[in-house]
Amino acid sequence: MNSDDKWLYEISSKHKLINFNFKEIWRYRDLILLFVKRDITTVYKQTILGPLWYLIQPLFTSVIFTLVFNNLGSISTGNIPPFLFNLAGITAWNYFTACLNGTSNTFRGNAGIFGKVYFPRVITPISVTISNLFKFGIQLIIFGVFYLYYVFSGADLGVTSNLFLFPVYVIMIALLGLGIGMTVSAMTTKYRDLTVLVGFATTLLMYISAVPYPLSEARKKLPEWVADIVAYNPVTQIIEGFRYMLLNTGTFSWLGFFYTLFICVSLFLIGLIIFNRTEKTFIDTV
Amino acid sequence: MSVILIAENISKQYRLGLVGTGTLAHDLNRFWHRIRGKEDPYLKVGALNVRNAKASSDYVWALQDINFEVQKGEVLGIIGRNGAGKSTLLKILSRVTSPTTGVIKTKGRIASLLEVGTGFHSELTGRENIYLNGAILGMTKSEISSKIDEIVAFSGCEMYIDTPVKRYSSGMTVRLAFAVAAHLEPDILIIDEVLAVGDVEFQKKAIGKVKEISKGEGRTVLFVSHDMNAISLLTDRVLVLKNGKVSFEGETDLAIKEYLKGESEEPNYHFDEQIDSPKIREIYIDTSLPNNIHEFGKKLKINFKVELPFGVDNLALSFQVIDEIQAPITHLWQIDSQFNVKREKGVYLFSCIVEKSRLYIGNYSLRVYLSDSKNKERFDFIDSACNFKIEMIKNKRDDYNWEPGSCKYIEDSKWVIEKI
């Protein structure tokens, strides 16, 4: 009886480089939806303002940024109202950090449940990214509201012809956040040092990612090598591109676009590989 | 019958001590061996998984060369002492962790009832949690929807089903969780000690459900328990694990005997360290059969070797015979002050002789006290020492078999019957 080829699956220590089993993930699609639902509904249970908190945080940050960087620090945002400029940057940046922070804690935060049941581990980062997409959507709506407000009060705003690339930018943010987040998550199972690092590194990263200022200002005012760091930082490219799509400000080049796309996809794949290597035995070391 | 699951040479190595210093060095060394195409250097080392032996290496084999097959529709029991590797094996089977070496091949989907209630979110209602928990365990939304009424009814939490789980009592949470898990429909179900939860009524329900799953629905079940009664009721075949290896595989009755024999391997009590106060050095029982098995009604002799590093005036030695549920059955003592004995420094052997032991079938152990009876100072206390077993061998009772648990001891009595 030759039945060896009929095995449903094997459990062994060997693993493929990338183990992204779409069929299995598809079978668990309901779990993704339920995780997303859980993440969204439980955060603000027993709060009065509820989902309004999603709006308050970016609005207040934008106000503070406008006061500090544009009024006090007199950073020029061209003919774009500084508040709108900051709001656009912060919306994109928030989605990035939410994905990064949410996924970087995947293994440690879920050790309890991962230690008892099997489901494709990659479901957790995927659902984090999707539930953050929901928050991002809400924040984008509030951006739209202010955008219309400024248009009606006479600001000179225009949308670029490249707006069709907007979804690609959103995907790039997600891939970058996921890629770095999954790497960090995998590393922290053994070496906890990274948790500490990620905490303050994201805050600092914001300042070299051109969130509160346009890249052109950085070129003008910062030493050249610092400006180069800012320019080659993929997050800068995403934020600049994002603002370019929505506000027609800053620079856009196809070279920069493909450079960023390449980096995002590579980091995502590296993250996925490391994540896959870790998921099988992390429970022994976490 | 066809084979649904095969485990081949499953081994699992764990690192002893803390993960920390040295981890990076070992990882780098491993990596260096791997890129040169050599074997992992740390796989060659590793001690046998003996919990109470002193660690001889930084690595330990929690499981070593486990091989077994499971037939479709079979209920396989897995038994073993604490730390024998049962949980590790289950973790590997349920894909929570992967084996260090070896491979498990399966033709069916495996779901486990390991410590139910994982993934419950305290802010969500009972109903929402049923969906979430069900999905975590691998059910689809429509599968859960079709069973939700059944699940709610089984849990007996109808009233609270739309209340957040954080308001539940711990018993209710467990009931709800078990209800979800019990309605899973995998090809292979792993059950680990979940029956020990809930009140008596729910336990009955749970055991019934497991029986129904295994016997009624013909599902393949791997059942892990310390409860020999449940094992003998539910399983067809049993795997006995000992120190990370399979020590016996076969029919349930034989396996349980094998396991219990292994259990009382070192039944006698020894204490070998330096002492500065009176201590019990040794306890051993002279039973009518070897291996601390004693026949009902035979002479039983219980010996205590006591060392006094100085003279004691009012020594009192006493012991209780304890049954399986830790209830004392009888208390016997020797108090020196009753006889006005003053003991000098030295080693004494105290032997308590029970001419006709009346303890009924079962497993018993001793709880021993050594004290000064006047100033109430306690020199030594030993619990659960000297496990021994009472059997009814060649002692037949007509028409009725001896049932374990029907009493604790049988009085010496006689019947007087007159027709009136």
Automatic annotation (TrEMBL), chain A:
ABC transmembrane type-2 domain location: 49-278
Domain of life where this protein originates: Bacteria
Alphabetical keyword list: Cell inner membrane, Cell membrane, Membrane, Transmembrane, Transmembrane helix, Transport
Lineage: Bacteria, Pseudomonadati, Bacteroidota, Flavobacteriia, Flavobacteriales
Membrane topology note: Multi-pass membrane protein
GO CC term, one of those recorded: ATP-binding cassette (ABC) transporter complex
Protein name: Transport permease protein
Entry similarity comment: Belongs to the ABC-2 integral membrane protein family.
GO biological process assignments: lipopolysaccharide transport
Keyword Cytoplasm listed: no
Entry-linked Pfam families: ABC2_membrane
UniProtKB/TrEMBL annotation, chain B:
Keyword annotations of the record: ATP-binding, Nucleotide-binding, Transport
CDD domains, per the entry: ABC_KpsT_Wzt
GO CC aspect terms: membrane
InterPro entries: AAA+_ATPase, ABC_transporter-like_ATP-bd, ABC_transpr_TagH-like, Bact_Polysacc_Export_ATP-bd, P-loop_NTPase
Any single Pfam family the record assigns to this protein: ABC_tran
Entry's family note: Belongs to the ABC transporter superfamily.
UniProt protein name: Lipopolysaccharide transport system ATP-binding protein
Organism expressing this protein natively: Ulvibacter litoralis
